[in-house]
Amino acid sequence: MAEQSSSSSTAAPAVTEKSDAEVEELLDRMLTRLALCDDSRLQNLLSKLLPLSISSLSSPSPSVRNKVIEILGHVNKRVKHQPDIGLPLSELWKLYMETQSTPMVKNFCIVYIEMAFERSNLEEKETMAPILVANISKLPSQHQEIILRITVKVFGDCHSTQISDEAAAKYRVMCGSPDSEIFLEFCLHSVLYQLPSQSGGCPPGLSVSQSNRVRGKDQLKSDVLLIRKLGILNVVEAMELAPEVVYPLYMAACVDGQEAVVKRGEELIKKKASGVNLDDANLISRLFVLFNGSAELERIAPESRVIPGNPALRVRLMSVFCRSITAANSFPSTLQCIFGCIYGSGTTSRLKQMGMEFTVWVFKHARIDQLKLMGPVILNGIVKSLDNYSASESDAIARDTKSFAYQAIGLLAQRMPQLFKDKVDMAVRLFDALKSEAQFLLLIIQDATNSLAVAYKGAPASVLKDLEALLLINSQVEQSEVRFCAVRWATSLFEMQHCPSRFICMLGAADSKLDVRLNFLKWKIPEPPSSTGEQLFPVDQTLPSLERCYPFQPASHFPKRLATHPPHCHGHEGGTKLVITEMALEGLFPGKGQRGAADDCNNLQYPKLGDMLDYIVSRMPSLLDSNEMREAKLLFPSKTYVAMITFLLKCFEADVELYRRGDRLVESWPSVEKMCSLLEHAMAYEGSVELHSNASKALITVGSHFPEMIASRYATKISWLKQLLSHMDIETRESVARLLGIASGALSISALPDLIGELISPVAGSQKLRFETQHGLLCALGYVAADCMKRTHVTSESLLQATVKCLVDVVNCETATIASVAMEALGHIGLRVPLPPLHDSSSGAVLTVLHEKLSKLLSGDDIKSIQKIVISLGHISVNESSSLDLNIILDLISSLCRSKVEDILFASGEALSFLWGGVPVTADVILKTNYTSLSMSSNFLMVDVSASLSRHSSMEPETNEGYRAMVRSAITRKLFDDLLYSSKKEERCAGTVWLLSLTMYCGQHPSIQQLLPDIQEAFTHLLGEQNELTQELASQGLSIVYEFGDASMKKSLVNALVGTLTGSGKRKRAVKLVEDSEVFQEGSIGESASGGKLSTYKELCSLANEMGQPDLIYKFMDLANYQASLNSKRGAAFGFSKIAKQAGDALQPHLRLLIPRLVRYQYDPDKNVQDAMAHIWKSLVADSKRTIDEHLDIIIDDLLAQCGSRLWRSREASCLALADIIQGRKFDQVLSVEYMHNLAEVLVLGEGLKTRGMAN
């Protein structure tokens, strides 16, 4: 072989040096020699002859060329049928690559190189193939095809199963060069190539010229194609190219017709291309060519037009595009791809689905400049596809296609709202789809519909008007999903001041339960007016026609009457209805129930009351009818009415506040008249208890601002109000009774005795009344009589006597419930005038007569009755001047000091506040508003009491100040001498509630101001109580004292609380222990040996004596004192956190003292202590990390010191805190020289304590 190479390398120069005649003579001798050579020696001869002959073609002499042609013809004949005769492959390739070789020489070389490869052994093929493709980019196009086909044949022959490292290294040499690009492109075409079908044509993914380039002149067989593709995959893998370069080739392999190729392609995708960058622009461009084929076909020759890939490849490519942002921004390829999937001639249902999915991806990730180009076109395509969708296409893929189409519309609406806002068509389409589409699509369409709402923000007025009609109709249809979207649009599209949308929310509020929804079906769609029924929403000029909203629907499409039978209910529909209700209420009352939204809600702009009422009346004109309301049926569902009334009250209060600033309340009277008419209709028999309660309370609210108008309006409706006094609902009865009292103020002087007589007569009569009737009459009697007492010039003594006598008799003779109502009525009268003595009683005074009965009632177990009685005693005391009666009231209230019922204690505190004087309410507030009680209307622990009560003016009794001072002295002695420092925890709790009530409700009174130091001391003492209510109320009391106190008191209070938290406070006032004094909470220290309880002082003494260690009682008391100190710290934390918000800079000097202890207390074993200290930490510290960093030295000093404390809980808390603070810090921050020794001691001590098992 070396000889052949040497001879051939010298032959060409030798020939070029000879003349044409000499060359011709040489060729003639070679021809003779060739003719005489036998086959066994022919291969050696050809190794010299063939290169020499072909190189001679460079001669311009025709005779030389003819001689060469004659030689080559003879060679062809000799070797044609003898494939075992080899040809000089390497020599021919060298000749081909010589720079001086002429085109003719190269052409003949390439022919015989191809022939030589077919006759070479595998080793030579494997060696030569990398050499051939190494400079492929420098070859002519026709020669490239031949070389590449030769190389791919070698892949099939040599590398179909594996490739050696040596061969792989040769191929890697061309990585990154132009040769590599040409090589890989041909490999891709070879993998894409498939055997032609019977119909012929070009394989998908290729052009005719590319197909011919791969196939060559010979027709490929299936097995040959298989091994070549496997060889290509192996060689490409061995070249270790970037994933982006080989990804299209692997993708093509994954969808090949041969299973082995598919398997190998899948393997390589996972192994070599899992980290491919799908946002590589070059890669995505190549993939789009595979998917779409050639773009701009009119500019490309037919044979060069690339056909789109087969459906399997396109589906595979779509899964890639749906993960590539670059693919979403590749206009126009993106648009061509989508339309090819949806409308392409060879598309499939799977491709349609993937096309819609890709559309969703494009609408989500495309840049806005790209989206402007594609969005309108794609939207038209989606609409067209939805119109062409057949109901018979019910397979999963078709369903997914439709769901992606609706998703795409929703996304496009969010990103390009301008495409939708000028027309209502898309809104109509989606709402119709919610009614007609299958159940599986409804949630998708819901999302799309809700997204579309944003697009109509700022739409033209005509479009918004059409939307109002559309939403009103769809808010009442059968399908819950449609109603959901209608309400969602109403809440999101329109502002709070938009009346039609709020009306839709009111309708949606009645959508919470199935039975309510079914009853509501009869109010869905407007019906033509008739003599027997009324149209719920009359169609007028302001409401657009349905034909205008649905321009593509025939008139016959719209229903004239609804079926009243229950619809089919889907499994999730009940939950949807609940969401509808919640959303509707959120649309009417944003942020309701959310503390964080309170401030935002205060700034809401409600519609004008008149505008809102006018719209409601336009939908339901019969609201203004003045017939007897109790005989009528409801015009709306009860829940709609409830939401409507609540919202109208918001509008009313906003208007009142606005008009009050300009002193123009009279202007709102027409609107108030309409509202009263609506509220009267709400009192119809069909209404729910909740509705009647809300409506009657709303009338009182209106009356509190317009008392004259309400009084004059309902003075003519006394008989209607008297009917409602026997209502089943207690709140409704009470509100109606209050309304009757207001209305009585407009009656003539002569009519008042008759009205009171009508109320007294049934109560005093012998006939047994229903409870509801008796309750309503007694309530009304109290309010009416109280209002009469206000008009002193018309009130006769006999009328007052008769009223009081009737009520006293009821208290003495009836049960606790009725007696408490009668006492409440007496209290209301007592707010106006002192109760007169009874003429027919020996004792005279009302309270003297009732003392025994009231004592019995207060010792009973009817909590609500006791509350009413106690509060009524407070009301009676307001104008009472008799020292005897005032003492009776105080004794009755004080008898409740051991009650364990919190509500009773709060009511008693309110009564004491009235008895003390200076409460922040007036008689008119109590009698003519929806006022309940001070303790019910103010939340002790959650709100700013002073702010909640500041809107009321105070009520100062017009009685002898000497009597009042005496009563205040008695109350003070009772609290400070008996209750607050009592050995009974119940009495201490009662004293705390009552003292807090006096401080809150009468805090501005001079007498309370004088007692503030004593009150502060008492509350500070009570911080250590085990009872959580006592402790929390004491901390609340301290914050109120701080608010009311002067500068010196505020400073003293801050110092006291700091001392309590740091353990440096002064000793608390000693409390004398008796036998049954509770020292520990039951179960906190276990049981005695006999199984008895260990909680009281007596039980602890008995245990100490039984153990023969009487001095053990002192250890028990020491333990109790320590527990009390922990409780004090916890209680102080609650008070401190509230004071910290007001104290501001006054706390700064104490921070260095507080912060180390607060850090440690947050790791206390007691969860309650942890929570309390975390609460105060948040109040004091704005930036926790920064604060700890700034005070790190003193914190670590404190923790190291407490690690050696005698108290187990201090040691544990310090170690936990130390471990937490050290973690994550640098060595030099926490382990400096001064800390090393102390920390080592702590570690040794901690290990020793652990070893000895010390638990305390």
Automatic annotation (TrEMBL):
<dbReference type="InterPro" id="IPR055444">
    <property type="entry name" value="ARM_ECM29"/>
</dbReference>
<dbReference type="InterPro" id="IPR016024">
    <property type="entry name" value="ARM-type_fold"/>
</dbReference>
<feature type="domain" description="Proteasome component Ecm29 N-terminal">
    <location>
        <begin position="27"/>
        <end position="508"/>
    </location>
</feature>
<dbReference type="GO" id="GO:0005737">
    <property type="term" value="C:cytoplasm"/>
</dbReference>
<feature type="region of interest" description="Disordered">
    <location>
        <begin position="1"/>
        <end position="20"/>
    </location>
</feature>
<dbReference type="GO" id="GO:0036503">
    <property type="term" value="P:ERAD pathway"/>
</dbReference>
<dbReference type="GO" id="GO:0005634">
    <property type="term" value="C:nucleus"/>
</dbReference>
<dbReference type="Pfam" id="PF23702">
    <property type="entry name" value="ARM_ECM29"/>
</dbReference>
<dbReference type="InterPro" id="IPR024372">
    <property type="entry name" value="Ecm29_N"/>
</dbReference>
<feature type="domain" description="ECM29 ARM-like repeats">
    <location>
        <begin position="698"/>
        <end position="797"/>
    </location>
</feature>
<dbReference type="GO" id="GO:0060090">
    <property type="term" value="F:molecular adaptor activity"/>
</dbReference>
<dbReference type="GO" id="GO:0043248">
    <property type="term" value="P:proteasome assembly"/>
</dbReference>
<keyword id="KW-0677">Repeat</keyword>
<dbReference type="InterPro" id="IPR011989">
    <property type="entry name" value="ARM-like"/>
</dbReference>
<dbReference type="Pfam" id="PF13001">
    <property type="entry name" value="ECM29_N"/>
</dbReference>
<protein>
    <recommendedName>
        <fullName>ARM repeat superfamily protein</fullName>
    </recommendedName>
</protein>
